Amino acid sequence: MLGAWMLYCVILGMSYSSSLKSFLTTPDMVPSLNSLAEIVDTDLPLKMQLYGTAEEAFISRMTDPVHKKFWQKKIVLDSYNLPVEY
Question: Residue 48's beta-bridge partner residues?
Fold first, then answer.
């Protein structure tokens, strides 16, 4: 009975130790982006595909500074030559 109890304690201790090590060594979660302003202020590429001239005219006439900055940073994708990224 004492051997079973010691084996249980060893397994429990090793489990706690490995769980603590993984908690201390893994990086924290990256905070999520909650608004268009936060997305525009990052260095992420802003890719979009335009589906017509009406959409482009509408977006280019926006007066909000965040939307203007988004429009300046955008990368327009060609519908026939979409990049494949993994």
Answer: 76
Neighbour-count burial of 58, counting CB atoms closer than 10 A to its CB (0-12 exposed, 13-18 middle, 19+ buried): exposed
Task: Give the model confidence (pLDDT) of 55-73 as tens digits.
Answer: 778 877 888 888 888 888 8
Specify the pTM. 0.49
**Distance of alpha carbon 23 from its chain centroid, rounded?**
21
* Distances, alpha carbon 85 to alpha carbons 23, 47, 58, in Å: 31, 12, 29
Domain ranges of the chain: 2-76
Give the closest residue to 63 by CA, choosing from 71, 55, 52, 75: 71
